[in-house]
Amino acid sequence: MTDGDDTPTPRTAQLAEASRDLLEAYVTREPIAPLRERIEGLTLGEAYVIQQLQEEQALAEGRTVIGRKIGLTSLAMQRQLGVDSPDFGFFTSDVVYYDDDVVPVAHFISPKVEPEFGFYLGRDLSGDVSVEEAVEAIASVHAAIEIIDSRIKDWNIRLVDTVADNASFAAVAVSREPLDLTKDDLATARCALLIDGEEVGSGTGADVMGHPAAPLAWLAKTLSERGVHLKEGDLVIPGSFCAAHPVEAGSRASADFGQAGSLTITFGEAGTEKEMAR
Fold first, then answer.
1. FHA domain spans which residues (predicted)?
2. Quick one: DSSP state of residue 179?
3. Are 109 and 29 in contact (CB under 8 A)?
């Protein structure tokens, strides 16, 4: 999107400015106005350009992209955010937490949590793959909790806003040990979201686009169309079992898969020196 002499067009400059403003919001914790209101006619493709610019900046800073998130895959989340299509984002190793970690709420603006599967891939995955092929690519299945947040003020988002804002991703927690279930159990497995021991939502794998590997197949195709491929070892979180729930300092969140296993994290005012250095 240049004038032919590598000079950015006004439109390109707008997208770059939006990317910088979103990155600044991570630091200041001051959300910005919806991008759809400040960039007239913002398209989905342009929203992904804004996201890509942020990924490029993360790589330039020496951070390592280790996985992808898929969002808006359940009817509950689509109703909650007023959209009717999935989206995706990226995440880096420095925003991954594990069992019993304390996650500092000071890193976020208005955080919410979602219970999910965490899929580690056993091989590269790209192109027009089937759900069955996506399942075969999964090396291990883990409990996960995605922490979502919005750098857009008051969560006033539509699809282009959340896509530009890295699909409203903030951080992810994943169990170190795999869940005690087989790949045949993915669609029927039940997961409950517990906040301070109280169930606030639940769903089964079938609530995630009919089968939790369906978003993985969708992502493989969608990324391939952009010249990006899922790789062996990547962590993919395919979407929430239920609607997101807000958390605050002192909250304890669990993704409870019953006898198959669970994952619990706690939210604190501040984290360890390592966490605060992120």
1. 119-169
2. P
3. yes
Task: Output the furthest CA–CA distance in the chain (Å, rounded).
Answer: 61
| Among 258, 110, 259, 119, residue whose Cα is nearest residue 194 | 258
- Looking at the predicted structure, is the pLDDT value of residue 77 above 80? no
CA distance 214 to 212: 5
Residue with tokens 């899929």: 119
Homologous superfamily (CATH) of 10-276 is Fumarylacetoacetase-like, C-terminal domain (3.90.850.10)
Shortest CA distance to 195 belongs to which of 259, 103, 265?
265
Query: What pLDDT digit, counting tens, does each position of 178-197 carry?
Result: 999 999 999 999 999 999 99
**pLDDT per position as a tens digit, 28-48:** 999 999 999 999 999 999 999
Domain map of the chain by residue range?
10-276
